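Before the break, one more example. Copy the sequence into your notebook; we will annotate it together after we see the structure.
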Amino acid sequence: MYPTLYHALLDLTGLDWPVLKFLNSFGFFVALAFMGAYWTLVLELKRKEGLGLIKPSVRKVMVGEGAKPAELIMQGIVGFVVGWKGLYILLNTAEVTADPPAFLLSGTGNIIGGIAVAAFFVWLLWREKEKQRLKEPKEEIVTIHPAQHGGNITLTAALWGFIGAKVFHWLESPKDFLDLLATGSIKDIISGLTMYGGLIVAGFMVVRYFKKNGMAVLPSMDSAAPGLMLAYGIGRLGCQVAGDGDWGIANTSPRPSWIPQWLWSYDYPNNVNAVLGPHRGGYVGEVMTSGTIFPGYGTHLVPGVYPTPLYEVIMCISLFAVLWWLRKRITLPGVLFCTYLIFNGVERFLIEQIRVNNLFLGSWTQAELIALGLIVLGVGGILWLRNRNTNGTETAH
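Here is what the structure looks like once it is written out:
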């Protein structure tokens, strides 16, 4: 396992670049996941605009205004943080790379670097605005095409997805919330996320964005569906590479000859959780005694467990390919998104049978209950949409 890009580069190429310790593997793949979702979303929004399913909107904007104080202040804050942390990293690389997360979440930094970079950022923005400034600013009407919303939609999903994933994790594991109240550690805020919480909350907020910006909701949801499945698959690849605990239960069954060991039962060496002791999944976290051992990690699982993140990568990428193939063949708005809900629910319900998770209601996990709900919602949605279409009711909005 590779907790950070530093460990991956060191193990694969022998290059020792400590600064890469700031780029954890899971975060890297999450960034790739959002890029993938954005790419597919933009492609689909452009296609659906061409079909007349999603209309462009118009907006009044002021042209020729100079930089506003609020804009300069925000630019200065961003510049200060970059310079404050960045210069300290350059001057104290060995110190900060010993524990990058602790440094990034600390109050340690270089004040001079912060002030200098903040001033530079503010000057850049002011200069750019001055180039565009008119003697008399004027109001113009601009056309905004659906694909131009792609960036804002992705950012909305990212922000509210994180919030939802954190809240649902606390609902599933109240002890973690109590630990946060007791310690007040920022690390406790950014660790422990529940995918379905992120999907649900982000979904509601993205639909709100569609409505607010005059985008036909059902075609817009269909545009997002393939990318959601692709993003989940890429994100799970990050879980596999980092070994973040989203693995399966212990697997001691005889391995079929046609399946490689790493795909059947895997011990997650150097997993980012550095787990020790017995766990509910039937495995024990032990200190590694052989192989490449990364300082600060160096544990593995005994016996090996089902590599469920890898199974989800395979399933989700395959389901993405199916949705991508169906997108031009399903013409009733909303049906593709409902199909995505069914695919998502079935995939997650199946993987829960061999995945380590906390019980939420009796013998059920939170993910199992939500997965069943998504399947019901998807099937019910398709039936409802087809019934409306048969009765001649408009479904685009």
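The chain has a mean pLDDT of 89. Strands lie at 57-63, 138-144, 277-278, 284-287, 299-302, 359-361, 364-365. Try to locate both features in your own notes.
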